[in-house]
Amino acid sequence: MTDLMKHCPYCGGKATIAVYGLSYTGICENCGAETAPRNTREEAIAAWNRRAYDTLHEAVRECAMKGYTRRETEVAIPALKPTIMEV
Fold first, then answer.
1. How far apart are CA 2 and CA 23, in angstroms?
2. Measuring CA to CA, which residue among 81, 87, 85 is closest to residue 10?
3. Rounded mean pLDDT, 17-31
4. What predicted TM-score, i.e. pTM, was given to this entire model?
5. Between these two residues, 76 and 41, which has the higher pLDDT value?
6. Domain residue ranges of the chain, discontinuous segments joined by +
7. 3-state secondary structure the chain
């Protein structure tokens, strides 16, 4: 299952699923970053793999295509740090 998971957005470490009772959590084996508990393994993997920067990458590329400077891009897209989005 770990081969379906992206690397940690903070340290680049390998991710795995931890089981706590009846819940599942995506967790980095290196730095310990983790998602909130989920009801299924599949939900935990989806939560781990969901990244804010997937969409931001597309937005940055669009700004580049429009010829924006770095400063204009930062103003247009204020949240450029990679994070794990929790829904």
1. 17
2. 81
3. 94
4. 0.59
5. 41
6. 1-50, 51-81
7. CHHHCCCCCCCCCCEEEEEECCEEEEEECCCCCECCCECCHHHHHHHHHCEHHHHHHHHHHHHHHCCCCHHHHHHHCCCCCCCECCC
Under 8 Å between Cβ of 83 and 69: no
Give yes or no for a contact between 26 and 10, defined as CB atoms under 8 angstroms apart: no
CA-to-CA dists, residue 25 to 45, 54, 82, 86, angstroms:
8, 21, 19, 12
Residues above pLDDT 90, as percent of the chain: 41
Backbone phi, psi, residue 25, to 5°: -135, 135
